[in-house]
Design goal:
With 195 residues, this protein is α/β, with parallel strands linked by helices. 34% of the residues lie in helices and 23% in strands.
C-alpha cells in the first residue's frame, strides 16, 4: 500500500520508510509527486500539528497521508523546546543553532532529563484520522557526539546504550526511537480499525 509522507525532511522520510517497510507500506515522497504545500504548524501540541499536516496533504494528493510532529522536551525547561524544536533558535535556524541555544539555556542546570516525543497522524482517504504517540527518555549532554541522525541527536544520550542518537546506526535508532514507537503504535491502531 502506498502512503504519502507529508514531510520534506529527508532524514524523517528515510526513517519512516525503514520502519514501515516491514508492514508492507511503500512511502511516496512529496518530491515524487511534485507536490509543494506549505502547512503552517501553529498548533500548541504535537497532535494538533500532525493532524493538520496529514489532512492538508491528503486533500492535496488524494492519497493516504502520513504526517508527524516531533521534538525534544527538556524537563528543566518546562518541556521546551517542544513543538518549537525545529525553530527553537529562529525560523531560519540550523540544527547547530538550536543545539547551541539549548545548551546555553541548560548551562549550570543539573537536571538534564529529556525525552523525544513523536506524534504520527495518518489521514485515510475514507476521511478517518488515526494518531499515535511515541516517547523515548534520555539525557542531554554538553558536548555533541556522533555524525548520524539529525536535529538534537548529537546531544541526546540514551542511558541504556551510553550512546547519543547520533552515534547509533540507522537500524539501531529505527528500532528504538520515539518515531519508531509512534509508527508501531499507529500501525497497531490502523490494524484495529481495519478490523
Amino acid at each position: 500500500m502506498k502512503v504519502l509522507a507529508a514531510t520534506t525532511n529527508k532524514g524523517k522520510i528515510q526513517e519512516i520508510s525503514d520502519i514501515l517497510a516491514r508492514a508492507g507500506v511503500s512511502i511516496v515522497s512529496l518530491t515524487e509527486l511534485g507536490l509543494k504545500l506549505d502547512v503552517i504548524e501553529d498548533g500548541e501540541t504535537f497532535e494538533a500539528n500532525a493532524i493538520k499536516k496529514a489532512l492538508a496533504f491528503r486533500e492535496a494528493s488524494g492519497m493516504h497521508a502520513l504526517a508527524d510532529d516531533s521534538g525534544l522536551c527538556v524537563d528543566a525547561l518546562g518541556g521546551a523546546p517542544g513543538v518549537y524544536s525545529a525553530r527553537y533558535a529562529g525560523e531560519q535556524a540550523h540544527d547547530q543553532d538550536n543545539i547551541a541555544l539549548l545548551l546555553k539555556r541548560l548551562s549550570g542546570i543539573q537536571d538534564r532529563s529529556a525525552r523525544f516525543v513523536c506524534v504520527a497522524a495518518l489521514a485515510l482517504k475514507d476521511g478517518r484520522v488515526i494518531t499515535a504517540r511515541g516517547e523515548f527518555p534520555g539525557v542531554i549532554i554538553d558536548t555533541p557526539r556522533g555524525t548520524g541522525g539529525f536535529g538534537y541527536d548529537p546531544i541526546f544520550l540514551d542511558p541504556v546504550t551510553g550512546k547519543t542518537f547520533a552515534e547509533l546506526s540507522r537500524d539501531e535508532k529505527n528500532r528504538m526511537s520515539h518515531r519508531h514507537r509512534a509508527l508501531e503504535a499507529l500501525r497497531e491502531e490502523w490494524l484495529k480499525v481495519q478490523g
